[in-house]
C-alpha cells in the first residue's frame, strides 16, 4: 500500500534530518547515553536547523505552517537511527500548543522568538508525586499577591521531561480550591522562568529508557510569577490541558509506530548478518514467520497512525480516536519490539545494540500521556459503555 500522507516537501525534510542525524547525533550518541542527557548546546543546533519554528507564525521567526507532518518525519527518522533528540520533543509537541492557544500578543512577542531559536527551551510540569493520572488532585498552589502584581507559587512536580535544561516551564497550579460540584475547577497555567528565586531542580531521574532525555523533579518555594506570565484565564487550566491531549496522544502513537518499524529494520539486518549452524538466522522458517507477523502488525499501525495524523491536521481528531490510536500503536510496538529483540538472542539484551535501547525506550509509551487502562476507559465511554 502506497502512503499518501507525505509530499515532496516532507521527503526533502526527511533527507535533511537523516543527514543531520548521521553528522551531529550518531557519532556522539553513546556519550549522551552515558551522561543521561543531550547537551544543552544541541538544542541550539536544532533551532538553527529550523525544527522548533515549523509551526510558529512567520512574524515571530517561524515557518508559519500548521501541520504535524514534519514532526511525524522526525519520529520516523530518529527511530530509524536508534537515537533520541533529548528532551526537545516536549518543547514542540507539548509546550508550543499552549503558547499558541493561550498567549496574548504581548506574550507571543516575548516567548516565541526565543522559542524558535532554542534560546529558551520549554517544558510542561503537570504530574506531581502521588497524583499520576489524577491531574485534578494536584496540590501545587499559586496565590495572587495582595498588590495583584504576581502569584506566589509553592509545591512540587515530578517526571518532568526536559526539566533539567528548561528555561521556562508551563506549571499547572491551583489558584483556588476545587468546588463541591467540580474537583477540576481552580487550576491555572503559568509560564514560569526557571531562573526565578525559589525555583529549584531536584534529582535528575534515573530512568529505565529514554536515557538521553533529561527528566527531573521540580520544587517551588515562594516563587514569584508575574501576572504577565499567566497563560489564558485563571481557573480554566484543566480545560486547556484536555484540549491538547489529542495531539499529545497522537505523538506518542506515531512515535511508537515509528519505533516498531525501526525494530524490524534492526532485526532484519541482524538476522541477515548473523550465522548459526552454518546458516544465516534469516534463512530459518521461524525467523521469516516472526518478521512477517511483525511486518503485518506494523503495516496496520502505520495506517492507524497516518489516519490519526490526517485527522489531527484537519482539526478533527477526537479524544476517543486519539486514545484508540495510542492504545493500538503502543501495544503493537510492545509486541513487535519484544519479538525483534528475541531474534537478536543474547545480543538483544546488550545496550550496545539499538534494539535493547529501543526496548527500554518504548516501555513508557503505555504509561505517559495516559496509561493504556485510561485509554480503554476513554474509548469505552465513547461507546456509551
From TrEMBL:
Acyl-CoA oxidase/dehydrogenase middle domain segment(s): 123-223
Cofactor: FAD
Domain Acyl-CoA dehydrogenase/oxidase C-terminal: 235-383
SUPFAM superfamilies: Acyl-CoA dehydrogenase C-terminal domain-like (SSF47203), Acyl-CoA dehydrogenase NM domain-like (SSF56645)
PROSITE patterns registered for this protein in UniProt: ACYL_COA_DH_2
The keyword Flavoprotein belongs to this UniProt entry's keyword annotation: yes
Pfam family, one: Acyl-CoA_dh_1
Domain Acyl-CoA dehydrogenase/oxidase N-terminal: 7-119
InterPro entries referenced in this protein's UniProt entry, alphabetically: Acyl-CoA_DH_CS, Acyl-CoA_Oxase/DH_mid-dom, Acyl-CoA_Oxase/DH_mid-dom_sf, AcylCo_DH-like_C, AcylCo_DH/oxidase_C, AcylCoA_DH/ox_N, AcylCoA_DH/ox_N_sf, AcylCoA_DH/oxidase_NM_dom_sf
Keywords of this entry: FAD, Flavoprotein, Oxidoreductase
Similarity annotation: Belongs to the acyl-CoA dehydrogenase family.
Protein name as catalogued: Acyl-CoA dehydrogenase family protein
Source species of the chain: Streptomyces tanashiensis
